[in-house]
Design goal:
Layout: E1 3-4, E2 7-12, E3 23-29, E4 39-42, E5 46-53, E6 58-65, E7 70-79, E8 84-90, E9 111-113, H1 130-133, H2 149-159, H3 168-201
Length: 202
């Protein structure tokens, strides 16, 4: 069976004084890989991953060699039904970002920037602390892309104007808005009519 390389998203933070804020976010996109078929070998300079997706009937494998060393002991792994998320602690405390994730400078197709988590180097001190506290705990469910069923259900029913129950108040407000518009419109139409009427006689 051929092995597929999963898509990998990454972002980073850096700090020369606080180890907690000196890390790499790594998300391996592998849907429905149960823990028993998942293998993850994290070392200071490499990450080796393999897993079998039951629904897609595909074997995934990944072998990364990092740009610099990480601290496996201080790193965290969070496994969900949709992916495997890692928070890899950079070993060396440095203010500068890593210039890239991998040791080799060549571009690889499967590796992409995680724009949901990315913060520019000069703006990272203003980044919300929630980014750090949510990782690895029960709060993970609230993060973007993590099983947002509730988010989708509520918002889309309102956006879709499904009338009925969710949009009750919204419909009344809309009617009022329409009435307001109607009050304004006749005056404008009247002006246009008078102008139009004035033209032929001129």
């Amino acid at each position: 069976m051929s092995q597929l390389t999963p898509e990998v998203l990454w972002a980073q933070r850096s700090s020369s004084v606080d180890p907690e804020k000196n890390f790499i976010y790594l998300t391996i996109s592998v849907p429905d890989v149960p823990k028993e078929s998942l293998k993850l070998d994290l070392k200071p300079t490499t990450l080796i991953f393999s897993g079998y997706s039951n629904t897609l009937k595909r074997e995934y494998s990944l072998n990364l060699e990092f740009y610099a060393e990480i601290d496996p002991e201080a790193s965290q792994v969070h496994h969900t039904a949709r992916n495997v998320e890692l928070k890899l602690r950079k070993k060396e405390l440095k203010e500068e970002y890593w210039p890239r994730l991998l040791k080799e400078a060549k571009k690889v197709q499967f590796l992409k920037t995680d724009f949901d988590k990315w913060v520019d180097e000069d703006e990272q001190n203003e980044a919300p602390e929630d980014d750090f506290s949510q990782f690895g705990g029960a709060g993970m469910g609230g993060m973007p892309g993590m099983g947002g069923g509730d988010f989708g259900g509520i918002d889309f029913s309102k956006l879709g104007g499904a009338g009925g129950l969710p949009g009750g108040l919204g419909d009344e407000e809309e009617e009022e808005d329409e009435e307001d518009d109607d009050d304004d419109m006749p005056a404008l139409e009247g002006e246009e009519d008078s102008k139009a009427a004035a033209k032929p006689s001129a």
